[in-house]
Amino acid sequence: RGFGHEEMERIAGWIDRVVTHIDDEAEIGKVRAEITELCEAKPLYPGMY
Length: 49
Hints:
GO terms for molecular function: glycine hydroxymethyltransferase activity; methyltransferase activity. It is an enzyme of class 2 (transferase). InterPro entries: PyrdxlP-dep_Trfase, PyrdxlP-dep_Trfase_small. Its EC number is 2.1.2.1. By secondary structure, this protein is mainly alpha-helical. 67% of the residues lie in helices and 0% in strands. Helix 1 runs antiparallel to helix 2.
């Protein structure tokens, strides 16, 4: 996907947020949406999203 340092920091932050809010479906949903946004911007295969 071409992830660099900035994306890796975001991913680490998402992991921390999910672990910290493991029972908070709203927060996990926010993280899921942010992950989807990143994956759409940098798809594994062109045209995947």
